[in-house]
Write a structure and sequence with these properties.
Layout (H helix, E strand, L loop, with lengths): L1 H5 L3 E2 L1 H15 L3 H8 L12 E2 L4 E2 L8 E11 L8 E10 L10 E8 L5 E8 L3 E2 L13
Antiparallel strand pairs: 1-2, 3-8, 4-5, 5-6, 6-7
Helix pairs in contact: 2-3
Length: 144
């Protein structure tokens, strides 16, 4: 979803509303944060005008060469008072290629179960994206 979006120049306001729905389903309360990385926010433009995709950004994904999942662990904490019990899923990604600019890059996603027991994004740490003239979504090749 992110790669497909990043390869476009712009989306209509209607398409953006649909993206908001899809991203909210995937990323919960973090959807707007992730969308803000991917779009140029022009406060002077007409509210109904097309939204332009940020072209000079790399949002690394596991679909890019050199990006790999390095760890996925479920942590459970149990307490005498069950109210304090916690369960979380930690998924870590890392760049393992030779590019010096991406050396030591890593990101962690934290998921917690929602009321229905499905995993829901709760937070993340690390570098979300790289911004600047040197970067775009084609900076790293996609895996085949």
């Amino acid at each position: 979803m992110i790669i497909d979006l990043a390869l476009r120049e712009k989306v209509s306001k209607l398409e953006y509303k649909e993206l908001e729905k899809s991203f909210t389903e995937e990323f919960g309360v973090h959807a707007k944060d992730i969308l803000s990385i991917l779009f140029i926010n022009n406060t002077d433009s007409d509210p109904e005008s097309d939204m332009y995709v940020q072209q000079n950004t790399l949002y690394p994904t596991v679909f890019h060469k050199g990006i790999t999942l390095t760890n996925a662990v479920i942590y459970k904490s149990y307490f005498e008072n069950e109210f304090f019990n916690q369960t979380r899923l930690s998924i870590k990604e890392e760049y393992v290629g030779d590019d010096e600019k991406l050396k030591d890059w890593k990101r962690e996603y934290i998921f917690t179960p929602n009321k229905n027991g499905a995993w829901e994004l709760n937070g993340f740490s690390g570098v979300m994206n790289f911004l600047g003239e040197d970067y775009n979504m084609n900076y790293l090749e996609l895996k085949r």
